[in-house]
Amino acid sequence: MTVVALAGGVGGARLCDGLQAVLPPGDLTVVVNTGDDTERHGLLVCPDHDTVLYTLAGIADPAQGWGIAGESWTVMERLGALGEETWFRLGDRDMATHIARTARLRAGARLTEVSLGLQAALGVPSRILPMSDAPVRTRVLSDDGWLEFQDYFVRLRQAPDVRAVSFDGVDAAEPTPEVLAALASAASLVICPSNPIVSVGPILAMRGLRDAIRAVRAEGVRTAAVSPIVGGKALKGPADRMLASLGHEVSAVGVARLYAGLVDVFVIDAEDAALAPAVEDLGMRALVTDTIMVDAEARARVARETLAALG
Amino acid sequence: MTVVALAGGVGGARLCDGLQAVLPPGDLTVVVNTGDDTERHGLLVCPDHDTVLYTLAGIADPAQGWGIAGESWTVMERLGALGEETWFRLGDRDMATHIARTARLRAGARLTEVSLGLQAALGVPSRILPMSDAPVRTRVLSDDGWLEFQDYFVRLRQAPDVRAVSFDGVDAAEPTPEVLAALASAASLVICPSNPIVSVGPILAMRGLRDAIRAVRAEGVRTAAVSPIVGGKALKGPADRMLASLGHEVSAVGVARLYAGLVDVFVIDAEDAALAPAVEDLGMRALVTDTIMVDAEARARVARETLAALG
């Protein structure tokens, strides 16, 4: 049974790790957000792709969930000495990914081809597909004006309230042939517990991708989503504050509402069991379980239960 | 007294180090060969500029004469793991130079501006000017055909005999305003003990630069050159074999002949004292001294004696 997961960064990567563990090798395709992608020091950095990549390759830093375990910071220190900005910190091992990616893109390869090559080199059995080969760039509107996403996310540490989001380029971006083929042959879809606004949001904002999801759903493919909000708080990142400042309910129900019409099974944490009726009122089945993916075993369990609920 | 030195890599950097030590800060301008420049992993690497840069910044690896002291190789190892070629090894510290340079070039700066910025960041009191902002690329003809310079120099370890050299782009390349201004205000010129064919050769192959040197010489500016061949052998690198395979005499006299008409004082090693008359037959004064620059003191002494001979 082939599964297509839509994912952003850390939370998404953890569920993908569980899905990879419980599915036969090669049966998982992850479609990742590219709205966080950014050019640093002339190199294309794809944070969501790389977090999923390193996680599925088993080399992610276990403490922070992104980056590579055992990193060193020599290049970054020297870049600082040479007068480059250093607030977006890239480790030496990670830097090699961005160097190789950028070189291959400049040599004419598509982002998808380059990404698949990196995954193959790291021995990842799943496929991680950028949602599009065309650039989509997320910006957020703060009280001081529009900010590039990483400016908001890393430099300002998500301090500003987000009044609006924009996915520049999304109207022109097409899903790739690889994404469309993966969706067309998917037995199930899973929306990972990633930020619904700025991680899953850009993916679903692509008209061609949304249409493709609708088309496979019309043929009976079912979709699960796992809530990234537990007990009214984001497990990681600013999703809770972002939901609030954008006028959404800060709860699993608030997230479920954003996915209404796209999702059959909505997975909420046991802590939120009382919200199950409100989720089911949206036309989804609520699956209540422990969704905190503290270790590999928990990741696999959440993945297994989610897939089982899809039948 | 401002001095303009023409230099390639290691040997040139050593004399430049001596010149910088004996001249007032800011009085040395080095014009470096760019024919060795190469794109590795999408990054512009300028081996001769960087060898001079690191040497004049006091951070060069003392053992090998190029690269930065105390290097680590994390990025290169990862690039290898990702399937990139690794025969052209770049250390982590060095990599930062190429990343910053490439980013700034892609942002629209000229190579000269970028180079001056790197020098300022590393606190180098001298100026190191690329001979041109336009790309010039050295290739060598081996018995198996034309090779890119670094392919010959690094990958093949200079094993092939060189039957011809080509400086692609040299006809279109102009010396920069900075190079022309430095020459126009120079009190003396020094041709460093670099490979006369592929280090000094590309610089002198630029018509505009050759014309500018002739113009300042016509106004009385005198030029010294230091032989890179001692006792019939190159101190470093393949200059001796290259001279032989290209039909030149493999001696200080053979080098002097290549510089005839451009040089007033030709500095040869004490070991080659017997060659002084043959050098003087070419219309140059021969300065015989110990030219082996084993340490900082020797570098400064060779620099001092060379400048003194120019009066």
Mean pLDDT of chain A comes to 96
Counting structural domains of chain A, the number is 1
Rough shape of chain A?
globular
| Order of helical and strand elements of chain A | EHEEEHHHHEEEHEHEHHEEEHHEHEH
- Kindly name the structural category of chain A: alpha/beta
CATH superfamily of chain A: CofD-like domains
Could you characterize what this model shows?
Two copies of one chain form a homodimer. Chain A has 311 residues and is α/β, with parallel strands linked by helices. Chain A has one domain: CofD-like domains (Rossmann fold), CATH 3.40.50.10680. Helices cover 40% and strands 19% of the residues of chain A. The first copy, chain A, has 13 helices and 14 strands. In chain A, the strands form four sheets. Chain A has a seven-stranded parallel beta sheet, with helices on both faces. In chain A, strands 7-6-8 form a three-stranded antiparallel beta sheet. In chain A, β1, α1 and β2 form a beta-alpha-beta unit. Chain A is globular, with a radius of gyration of 18 Å. The first copy, chain A, starts with a strand and ends with a helix. In chain A, 52% of the residues are buried. The model of chain A has no long low-confidence stretch (mean pLDDT 96).
Summarize the structure.
The structure is a homodimer of 311-residue chains. Chain A is α/β, with parallel strands linked by helices.
